[in-house]
Amino acid sequence: MRTHGNEREFASRPEGSGELRGTRMPDPLQPKASPNDKPIPGTVGVLRIFGVPIRLHFTFLLLLVFLIFIGIGGKQSGLATAIYIIALFGSVLVHEVCHALVARLYGLRTSEIVMFPIGGVSRLEGQPKPRQELPIALAGPASNLVIGLVLLATQHDLLPLATLSVPTDANLIQRIAAGNLLLGLFNLLPAYPMDGGRILRSLIALRKPEEEATQIAASAGQFFAVAMGLFGLLSGNFLLMFVALFVYLGAQQEGAAARGRSLTSGFPARAAMITDFRTLSHGNTIREAGDLLLSTSQQDFPVMHGDEVIGLLSRSALMRAMLREGPESYVAAAMDRNFLRVPPDTDLAVVLPQVLSAGHAALVMDGERLLGLLTAENLYEFMLLRQVSLAQARTTHRE
Ligand SMILES: [Zn+2]
Hints:
By secondary structure, the protein is of the alpha/beta class. Helix content is 51%, strand content 14%. The chain has twelve helices and eleven strands. Strands 1-5-4-3-2 form a five-stranded mixed beta sheet. Strands 6-7-8 form a three-stranded mixed beta sheet. Strands 9-10-11 form a three-stranded mixed beta sheet. Helix 2 runs antiparallel to helix 3 (130-153) and helix 3 runs antiparallel to helix 4 (172-187). The chain is elongated. Mean pLDDT is 81; it is low at 2-37. The structure holds zinc ion (ZN). Residues 1, 95, 99, 140, 187, 195 line the site of zinc ion.
């Protein structure tokens, strides 16, 4: 599986290959270096393969404990148990690294690979074009199918599939082979955002606009996820239900993102910005900022020094400052100097994910001149209006 985002390079992380680093738990009180520069929370350790950081989600460690637990006392030796677990982990890793390597052929970087119990997730920087997405999505499952088939080819006689459910030392290689074939085939299910769903989307996108293709693939993904979840429920397979939930939420999220892009694309930032807003002066206190927060519906305030914008005070920064420094401290000390600024003619489809991931307003600025604010709520209202006017245009067209 893969996710996309317009992520920046993780420039703040020290370079190095094969090194292990400690846990980086998010600290809510620490100011963020950049809204996009954060790994998936709850992940530990970094190992680099071809320069791509590999992180383990902590639930993956629970799975390891579980696998070791069920492996003990079986018919296989401890060594075979260990080899089996490492081989499957390695297979998932190979799958993700193959995605990353093919993406690199197209000049797309992978910002990180996170290993979850149900498989890996690679985060690509930027969105591949439909023609690029097809080979990138195929590479992962294909690698597992190749590993599975090569392993089977080394075997003299193939055991019946049913006997593989009882782990023994003798069927170790065939179990690893079967695991890889299953991994490859399962990921080829056309359930977006799984690899098969991405392949489906790239094929639809050859004939239809990309956003529409994503929406169709996302609907198909949600349909498959429900089917998968029902099947998991009826067969008592909880892992499958968990995967189904993951796929459903992923499809929903990406479908919504595609709808957002298609509703905002082609409009400049100035079309949706708030032009009626209040600002703070750098000499204002946190108490005054709090009063302004209460008396207006605004949550983020540009901080001015004369005509010049010197920072942005978000509601959360205001609360932090109130808690740490008290109401008589100055907004200049609490404001974020690294706020999101957007030229007025930037396409809204580009601004939308930036504002959503920043978690605070973007300032629309023509050079050093402040023109307006863009907030998530306002962008949402803009999309609602667009949706209604599109629906209205369709009904008048029919009459
Ligand atoms: Zn994959």
